[in-house]
Amino acid sequence: MIRKVSLKLMRIRFIAFIVLWYSIQSLILIFMVFLEV
Fold first, then answer.
1. Which of 26, 23, 24 is nearest to 34 (CA)?
2. Could you give the CA distance from residue 7 to residue 32 in angstroms, rounded to a whole number?
3. In Å, how far are 10, 14, 19 from 22, measured between CA atoms?
4. pTM attached to this predicted model
5. Distance between CA 15 and CA 11 in Å, rounded?
6. Which secondary structure element, helix H or strand E, spans residue 30, and what is its range?
7. Could you give the 3-state DSSP secondary structure of residue 37?
8. Mind listing the pLDDT tens digit for each residue in 1-37?
């Protein structure tokens, strides 16, 4: 039971990390385009 909960928490944390990483990359891309224009 506890192991299942920890696995779910790890999965949520992993997904959140991926979403955060992609959002930061897209923000940097938009910022670079904005600076170039």
1. 26
2. 38
3. 18, 12, 5
4. 0.60
5. 6
6. helix 2-36
7. coil
8. 678 889 999 999 999 999 999 999 999 999 999 998 7
In the block, tokens 């990359």 appear at 25
Distance CA 23, CA 25 (A): 5
Domain ranges of the chain: 1-37
Say how many residues make up the chain.
37
